[in-house]
Design brief:
1 helix
């Protein structure tokens, strides 16, 4: 014998199913800075396979490895939140722009963001001369297990090299994350 349902019951079931499909995902926005200094925490590891074109200093194939300190503000003495470790490889070089493929692991621990602690990875292409570029967040570990999102990196401060030190660069990062 077939079971009959009232139209009210069917409407309630449909509303419950719709509500379950639109459940909000956990999300967070992280804002932080990196402190970079060539020869201190950023090094060339593989020489260029194709020499630089006129007016540039990097050739295709040049690889840079780095281990930047992540800080809460642009001040290098502000609270340390972790590190960014990774590689950048020059994949295109013209007089107008040099493009790098960037792969990083962000080690992040912030007691002010609910105690978030773990790593997440970013990947993408960057033109450092552009001033701003975007990377995809491709996964994570620890509290960041199951995340996806994007990071926008912007130039913040540049201190030119002197006779006593190499150039110092501070970049601002805004990372928008969602959990699957």
């Amino acid at each position: 014998m077939a079971t009959r349902y009232s139209s009210t019951t069917l409407v309630v079931v449909m509303m419950l199913l719709m509500a379950m499909s639109t459940v909000a995902r956990k999300s967070v926005v992280l804002k932080y800075y990196t402190q970079q200094q060539f020869g201190v925490n950023e090094f060339s590891s593989v020489p260029a396979a194709i020499p630089p074109v006129n007016g540039t200093s990097t050739g295709v194939g040049l690889e840079v490895v780095y281990n930047y300190t992540v800080t809460r503000t642009g001040d290098p003495t502000s609270q340390v939140l972790g590190t960014i470790r990774g590689t950048s490889v020059v994949v295109s070089n013209t007089a107008q722009a040099t493009f790098f493929v960037v792969n990083t692991v962000v080690h992040y621990a912030d007691p002010k963001k609910g105690g978030l602690n773990g790593t997440f990875t970013t990947q993408g292409e960057a033109n450092f001369r552009a001033g701003t570029f975007e990377l995809a967040v491709t996964g994570g570990t620890g509290d960041f297990r199951g995340v996806f999102g994007y990071t926008v990196v912007s130039s913040f401060k540049f201190v030119p090299a002197t006779t006593n030190s190499t150039a110092k660069v501070t970049n601002f990062y805004r990372t928008d994350l969602w959990w699957a």
